[in-house]
Design brief:
The chain is globular and about 45 Å long. By secondary structure, the chain is α+β, with helices and mostly antiparallel strands. It is built from six helices and seven strands. The relative contact order is 0.18. The protein has a seven-stranded antiparallel sheet with strand order 4-3-2-1-7-6-5. 36% of the residues lie in helices and 36% in strands. A hairpin with a 2-residue loop joins strand 1 and strand 2. The protein has one domain. Helix 4 packs across helix 5.
C-alpha cells in the first residue's frame, strides 16, 4: 500500500516516537504507517467538544502487537486498546474493500466521559489480516462478531497465519525494520541492566 503524500514528503503519519520502544517490546505483528486515515464523528460529545457531524482525513498509522491494537492520526493516538480487553468486542470491524479496514464504535463504550458514534476508516493492505487477528482473540474470549461478506477472506488470512498468529511485520520494509530494531534495542538494554544488578 502506497503511503500518503504527506508521509512521503514530511513523514506525517509515522508512529509517535514516545511509543516506539513500548511497541517494539510488545512484539509487532502488523505495522502500516503513513496510510490514509479518516475519522467520522456523529452526535459526538467529549469534555470541551461537541460535533453533530465531523470528518477529519489525513495520514496515520496502525499497529497490531501481541498485546494491543493501536491507531494514530498524524501524531495523535485515536485508538489504543489491549487485545485482551473485553471492550474490544464492542468495536465493529469490517472490510468493505480489500484495502480498507473500518472500525465503528460508541465512544461511551471505550470512555465514559465521551458519547456519540465514531468511525475510523483505514486504507491499508493489511485490512483482512488485522481483522482476522482480532477475531482470533475475540473467539478465544468467547465472543463472536464478524458476519459481513468479507468474513471468508478474514478467515483465510487467519488460517494462513495459524492460530498462534505467526504474522510477520507488514507495511513498508523500513517501518518493519524499525520496529524490530526498537524491540532488540530495548531487550538488550534490559538484559544489560539485569546483568549489572546480578553482578552487584
Amino acid at each position: 500500500m502506497s503511503s500518503t503524500i504527506g508521509h512521503r514528503l514530511f513523514g506525517l503519519g509515522r508512529i509517535p516516537r514516545r511509543l516506539r520502544d513500548s511497541l517494539g517490546v510488545e512484539g509487532v505483528r502488523v505495522l502500516d504507517e503513513g496510510i490514509r486515515v479518516s475519522v467520522t464523528y456523529r452526535n459526538y460529545r467529549s469534555p470541551g467538544k461537541w460535533f453533530a457531524w465531523k470528518r477529519s482525513t489525513g495520514s496515520g498509522a496502525v499497529v497490531m502487537t501481541q498485546r494491543r491494537l493501536f491507531v494514530s492520526f498524524y501524531r495523535w493516538p485515536i485508538l489504543d486498546i489491549e487485545r485482551a480487553d473485553s471492550r474490544l468486542h464492542r468495536i465493529t470491524m469490517s472490510v468493505p474493500a480489500t484495502d480498507v479496514l473500518e472500525l465503528a464504535f460508541d465512544a461511551a463504550d471505550l470512555d465514559s466521559s465521551r458519547s456519540g458514534e465514531v468511525t475510523i476508516r483505514l486504507r491499508t493492505s493489511q485490512a483482512s489480516t488485522l481483522r482476522a487477528m482480532c477475531e482470533i482473540r475475540l473467539e478465544a474470549s468467547g465472543f463472536r462478531q464478524y458476519t459481513d461478506a468479507s468474513e471468508t477472506d478474514a478467515r483465510n488470512h487467519s488460517s494462513e497465519g495459524g492460530r498462534n498468529e505467526e504474522v510477520a511485520c507488514a507495511g513498508s520494509d523500513d517501518a518493519a525494520s524499525d520496529c524490530r530494531r526498537w524491540g532488540d534495542r530495548i531487550r538488550r538494554r534490559r538484559s544489560g541492566s539485569e546483568c549489572r544488578r546480578r553482578s552487584l
